[in-house]
Queue: 2 jobs
Job 1
Amino acid sequence: MEKLILTCAVTGAEVTKKENPAVPYTPEEIAESAFFAFCAGAAVIHLHVRQDDGTPTQDARIFKRTVDLIRKKCDPIIMVSTGGAVGMSVEERCQSLEGGTEMASLTTGTVNFGRDVFFNSQTTIEMIAKSIQDKKMKPEIEVFDAGMVDNAAALVKKGLLTAPTAFQFVLGVPGGLGASARNLTYLADSIPPGSTWTVAGVGRHQFTMAAHAILMGGNVRVGLEDNIYVRKGQLAKSNAELVERAVAIAKEFERPIADVADARRILGLAPRPS
Ligand code: KMH
Ligand code: ZN
């Protein structure tokens, strides 16, 4: 089986310090949390940024500052979010692409998101896909519901995405596709041959989905964006603690962890010049 790529989604847009004080807000806090997640085994950092008070933002300067601070400490693959927070305009969302990174997320459909709607019209999706393409960045398709896989295939046909594609199955968002082994198997079987996939189980599903992916040959995303508990009732002290638990599960099943060079090879990214 191929080595396991661990992604850490370090802060997201929704979770706050009120729910878990370890949620990083400032560029310095995010960079430090990303560094310790990297040290624990995360080869990829899925990056959102915040204003200092925790308000989600897609401000290009804050992205750039955070990326620079991360790169001063370590050199993971950095994937910026183009999802941002619900309600942001497409122009606002695309500002993250100015941060100087190699990868960016791209959600290929609309989904209910708790009481909100994460709105991605076809026009929005194509605008973001084109912006990612123009920057020669690699997109990761964020799949919150099954039809988003089919829409990604349609974008390949339109020339807005290049195969092989990287997929992220985000399962268990209230309003989206549920986090079950059956749904994960269905999605993994539905993507075009040669694609890579990762699963992010939301909330209490983080480690059950991780275990399934580890056994199935997929990859795993953990992090405070998706889940604030390391075990039932026990708040995670850090993003690194969540990565450490995923590493421990992988170790139990003898699945080796990809370092950044391995992850670059698996994802088809050029090696970083040394
Ligand atoms: N915050 C969610 C509404 C992404 O990063 O691309 C969207 C999200 C997806 O987190
Ligand atoms: Zn995200």
Job 2
Amino acid sequence: MTTNRTEIYAGGSWLEAHASARVTMTNPATEEIIGTAPDADSTDVHAVVSAARTGFRESGWRDLTPLQRAEHLAPFADHLRSRAEEIGSFITTENGTPAALSTAVNVFGGTSMLDYYRQLAGSLEMEDDRTSTIVRKEARGVAAMIVPWNGPMILALQKLGPALVAGCSVVIKPSPETSLDASFLADAAEAAGLPDGVLNIVTGGRDTGAALVAHRDVDHVSFTGSTAGGKAVGAACGAALKSHTLELGGKSAAIVLPDADLDLFLGSFGQLCLANSGQGCFLSTRVLIHRSLYQDLSERIASAMESARVGDPLDVDTMYGPLINVDAYRRVLDHIESAQSEGAKLLTGGGRPSHLNRGYFVAPTVFGNVDPSMRIFREEIFGPVLSLTPFDDDDDAVRLANESDFGLGGMVFTRDLDRGNAMARRVETGSIGINGYTLDVTAPFGGYKDSGVGRELGPEGIEPFLQYKSIYQPGGAFF
Ligand code: NAD
């Protein structure tokens, strides 16, 4: 069954799009078309932004207290949770994420962010009465949210929770690969009684995103996507003097120290380094191993990946599904080829699994003897390709971890917590885990270097959606 949507969501209603062009969604596991959605043009973008502007100025939304706004987040989250399996599986047909992971991350992970910001709203003071000045926090206005396909719902909710508590209205632009699941958010907004125009959705590709960023009535841009996309968005925002945050690519390092609990590492690396077939921003796709463990551990890593189950992402036993599309499939194979020609040692994988004759599948692939000069060490592959590199001591490990244009995630495996934390402090990255990597909604998340600008999550995640106003009271003195 295919779903062909012809509308954009503006001002609380689905309205026929002006554009006749369409983006097409293809199930990456079967290569079958599952639906289409408007490839919105500048007229459509103007319609959603105008609806958001009206929602911001005239619906009364911005005049509510954070707590009053946050009251809408509970029914919003409840609605999504009540349809968890349906949403998770639907996203799986769009992007190939194994269904259990898709539901856990997009629905339960995403709604936990709404729960967190609902609770935080109680402590958000919008006015602070200083000696002779009232300092106000005000919502920035209309926030554009541009999201990628790899975690379409969680990445939208990560932005939506703080934006709504701050008092912004929003326009969400999903990725062209995952344009259909955003309708669940429109349903949730209606179930939650959000005023019309507070949440709007426009579908399309890069040009639609660029038109949204350029629209003069968009006050803030919250972008998650590739580093190349982020640079273009950052440049456009700079030219228009628009505030923005950029959550971008990564190439994180897992450091395995000589005293590491290897069973712990081996039990978790398949998810922490290659979940979603390596299509995750913070995954540690570079594994740095102390030389004393290198031979033994690299063999055990390769054999674990050899037996990992690859296939239909709707099957509960599947560990790894397909890549998002044919371009990604070709890009990953190109990286594999280049790694071999640069002298890396292929330990397992290296191409399409022999039992799968359709879909964009690449077997989990492990390369040993990877040198920092090689492309697979430096570039974000966004596929199931792990590179293993030996190191000699702690300084060497930190040097290798930092030899990257990115700085998003990372891990240190050690039985010595003090040593692990000392090393974590030296790695140039926005987040890093000891003996694992568990995202914490109460702590800021974001990138160093080419991995981004600004932070999401935690109390810090609200800041980008606010601006400050000082109202000087009569009789105040400068000196
Ligand atoms: P992408 O940059 O191609 O697209 C992301 C979104 O931006 C899409 O909606 C796309 O239509 C839009 N877009 C692209 N170029 C644009 C432009 N110039 N102006 C306006 N909009 C534009 O990225 P992708 O391939 O969809 O996603 C994968 C990338 O996202 C990876 O690099 C991954 O690491 C990154 N990512 C980062 C995080 C994070 O939190 N740091 C989370 C998930 C994914």
